[in-house]
Design a protein that fits this description.
Layout: E1 5-12, H1 18-24, H2 29-37, E2 44-49, E3 53-60, H3 63-73, E4 83-85, H4 87-99, H5 110-124, H6 130-149, H7 159-168, E5 177-181, H8 185-196, E6 201-206, H9 209-217, E7 224-229, H10 233-239, E8 242-245, E9 274-278, E10 295-298, H11 304-313, H12 315-367, H13 369-403, H14 407-417, H15 428-437
Parallel strand pairs: 5-6, 5-8, 6-7, 8-9, 9-10
Antiparallel strand pairs: 1-3, 1-4, 2-3
Helix pairs in contact: 2-5, 4-6, 4-12, 5-6, 6-12, 7-8, 12-13, 13-14
Binding site for substrate: 50-53, 103, 108-110, 114
Subunit structure: Homodimer.
Catalytic activity: (S)-4-amino-5-oxopentanoate + tRNA(Glu) + NADP(+) = L-glutamyl-tRNA(Glu) + NADPH + H(+)
């Protein structure tokens, strides 16, 4: 078990705007993990990057090291947009993220897969060891429980479905022509929601046409669907009543020039003839596109009304999930404590084993020759029995002390067995944290770390 503590920092849809999220987004999750691991004393790292959040978790000997690494990671981002948390709050937040409680769409399903993918990326980059292994797998477990045991994901369950709902408030989707730009997971969800809403024609545009064709094939029975390359946007975008963009492009893919003629069909000044919902991160739609009079552009921030309605509908389920997270967090804290206590106890037994072996050899040498070999098994068995019987009561007491976060007692007891124990003390950072911050409560998985004010 790692002897460090978890520190995390994040920029999310709640703390920053679309542009700040774009600036914080790494080129790849694995690459970001590798970058964090180059910082001295950072033992583990995990990075979750989606269209609504960039979160980084690191394990270091203390929070000062973790915070320094994360400040560098988010350098250039407005300080007000970056939320930094210490051990307990970081772990609890990760559980809430996987359960969908921190999503734009409360309880949405997409995030659990993203948490799992980020875990695989971090593991491939050698960023996952015992502490984050326990934390992230616990988060995935909580996310799965939340969705199978509660109604947290009923109704609008993704940004794709929220985009369709937002568009439908402006113009009827039944019988409409829709364009989805981007054939990734978000594009799939948007296309599925638009098809379910009754659009007559659905065009999927993508840089790689084969991917668009593959996605279009999934909806052939629900609408007239076809694929198109991105360079055909000037043709297909003008004809669409609804456009949903969800690409991974670094630059806008939809410009006002793609919508020339959009005003031609507007009978009334100010009438909305075309709705565009930009789910891209960074933006897929050039800001000046909203100036086209017959076009109404919505971005991630504009989905707030949809998400608030969903939040109200799922309030009861959210309370159930919060209670579930409380219990699972306690179990995670206990898991860390047991592992750290067992590591300390193992060190105690190793010390006792060295003394036992030395004394056994001394006793056998005094017996000498054939007598020593004849009685070796008996002497060793007696020594083992003495060690086990002598260490059984302190082992029980040490585990109880660890369960109560009494790491000072654990440290003192271990030093009684071996005055040199402190040289490789697996709980010394925990004792130091307790001395600095005061005695933590029994639910504090960080063993002395404090949450942000």
């Amino acid at each position: 078990m790692s002897t460090g503590v978890v520190t995390a920092a994040r920029v999310t849809h709640e703390s920053g705007d679309v542009d700040q999220l774009a600036a914080a987004s790494p080129e790849s999750q694995a690459g970001a993990v590798q970058e964090l691991l180059t910082v001295p004393d950072i033992e583990e790292a995990y990075v979750l990057s989606t269209c609504n959040r960039v979160e980084a978790y690191v394990v270091g000997p203390d929070h000062a090291v973790g915070r320094a690494a994360l400040e560098e990671f988010f350098a250039g981002i407005d300080d007000e947009a970056v939320v930094t948390t210490d051990h307990d709050e970081s772990l609890r937040h990760l559980l809430r993220v996987a359960a969908g409680l921190d999503s734009v769409i409360l309880g949405e399903d997409q995030i659990i897969g993203q948490v799992r993918t980020a875990y695989e990326d971090a593991r491939d980059a050698d960023g996952i060891d015992s502490m984050l292994e326990a934390a992230v797998t616990k988060a995935i477990h909580v996310g799965e429980r939340a969705r199978t045991e509660t109604a947290i994901n009923e109704g609008v369950v993704s940004l794709g479905s929220a985009a369709a709902r937002r568009a439908e408030r402006e113009i009827p989707l039944d019988g409409a022509t829709a364009l989805v730009v981007g054939a990734g997971e978000m594009g799939q969800l948007a296309a599925r929601s638009l098809a379910a809403a009754g659009v007559d024609e659905l065009v999927v545009a993508n840089r790689t046409v084969a991917h668009a064709e593959h996605l279009a094939a999934d909806f052939e029975d629900e609408a007239d669907v076809r694929a198109a390359p991105l360079d055909a946007l000037e043709t297909v975008a003008t004809r669409a009543d609804v456009v949903v963009t969800a690409t991974g492009s670094d630059e806008p893919v939809l410009e006002p020039t793609h919508l020339e003629g959009a005003d031609d069909g507007a009978d009334d000044v100010g009438a909305i003839e075309q709705v565009i919902v930009d789910l891209g991160q960074p933006r897929d739609v050039a800001p000046e596109t909203d100036a086209v009079s017959a076009v109404r552009v919505f971005d991630l921030d504009d989905l707030e009304t949809i998400t608030e309605e969903t939040r109200e509908q799922r309030a009861d389920a959210a309370r159930e999930v919060e209670a579930m997270i409380d219990r699972e967090f306690e179990l995670l804290a206990e898991q860390y404590k047991r592992a750290r206590a067992d590591e300390a106890i193992a060190a105690m037994y190793e010390s006792a084993e060295r003394i036992k072996e030395r004394e056994v050899e001394t006793a056998l040498s005094q017996l000498g020759g054939e007598a020593a070999e004849e009685h070796r098994e008996i002497v060793e068995a007696m020594a083992d029995s003495l060690v086990n019987q002598l260490l059984a009561p302190p082992t029980k007491s040490l585990r109880e002390a660890a369960a109560e976060d009494d790491w000072s007692t654990v440290h003192t007891a271990l030093q009684l067995f071996d005055p040199e124990f402190g040289e490789n003390d697996p709980i010394a950072p925990l004792q130091a944290a307790a001395a600095t911050h005061g005695e933590p409560s029994s639910g504090d998985a960080s063993i002395g770390a404090t949450d942000d004010d």
